[in-house]
Amino acid sequence: MRLVTLFTAVALGLAACGSSQPITLANPTVPEAYQARTDSGPNGEPIQIPAVRAAYLNERNQRQQVPYNGPEAPGTIVVDPYARVLYHVQPGGQAMRYGVAVGRAGTGYAGTATIARKAAWPSWRPTDNMIRTQPDLYAQFAGGLSGGMHNPLGSRALYLYEGGQDTYYRIHGTMDPSSIGKATSAGCIRLFNQDVIDLFAQVKTGTTVHVRSQEESIRLEGPMIETPEGYVQPANQAQTAMAGAPTAMAAAPTTALVTDPYAVTTISTPGGAPVTTYSPVESAVQ
After folding, report:
1. Cβ–Cβ < 8 Å for 96, 152
2. pTM of the full predicted structure?
3. What is the domain count for the chain?
4. In this structure, how many other beta carbons lie within 10 angstroms of the beta carbon of residue 46?
């Protein structure tokens, strides 16, 4: 795939620029939950899931138990696309919180649905409409992609239905762990493969999933601020941090209020030119 070729070219290019002198790199500790593991693939074959890089594991992205103030009953999954988190509600006013990546399809649905199907290492095929309207991107996948680390749905997928109808809303893994916590160019709700495996093991078909609207998110989580790196954090935390920063730094416009998680779709190169980046297969909705 072109995507793989691009990543390979970048990797080789970086290697070619390397120094001939020995280099000692920092090796931050990766929590056990995010270490590499071997999983059983769709045909029973072993699939290696790489460790999540420590750089991607900021405080909001890591799986952790937190107090929960929403009205949902224990066992419910709550997706908040605007705060970019997913909650699995627990008894006693607690919830397990997961960081998520949000795409365009991830903001197109709000309401209450049910998990009607679960799949480990699911296959994927773009919709006929995707192939027809963007054949240069999707025609190459018309035959579908088998399950595996090359598949945009990652290690697990949960399929949401409402009133017996497919919402085309998915909670799934990802082949791009660097996207977690960010608003990416396409797709539904993505978790680290390690996290979606954990969630998948705990929920059954029939589980209720509530997807918050932006209004619900602001009421329960408060407004969010987007950092220059593309992550979000509560606005009150950002303001507290800025208040303690030097005057010149505090005056710098380094954050933007989040109103739609799809707003950020570009990165800036060292030369300052904005570059839109996305994977053609990451708009996996079927």
Report:
1. no
2. 0.76
3. 1
4. 8
Residue 113 belongs to a domain: yes
Q: Please report, for residues 80, 203, 212, the alpha-carbon distance to residue 93 in angstroms, rounded to integers and kept in the order given.
A: 17, 18, 18
CATH number, position 123: 2.40.440.10
Q: Report the candidate in 187, 158, 167 with the shortest Cα–Cα distance to residue 175.
A: 187
Q: Which of 261, 110, 79 is nearest to 184 (CA)?
A: 261
171 domain-assigned: yes
What is the CB-side half-sphere exposure of residue 225 using CA atoms within 13 A? 16
pLDDT in tens, 7-38: 333 332 322 333 334 333 345 789 999 999 99
Q: What is the distance between the alpha carbons of residues 13 and 177, in angstroms, rounded to a whole number?
A: 21
Q: Would residue 87 count as lying in a domain?
A: yes
Backbone phi, psi, residue 160, to 5°: -100, 130
- Note whether 194 and 33 are within 8 A (CB): yes
Contacts of 16 (CB under 8 A, 6+ apart): none
- Is residue 103 included in any domain, yes or no? yes
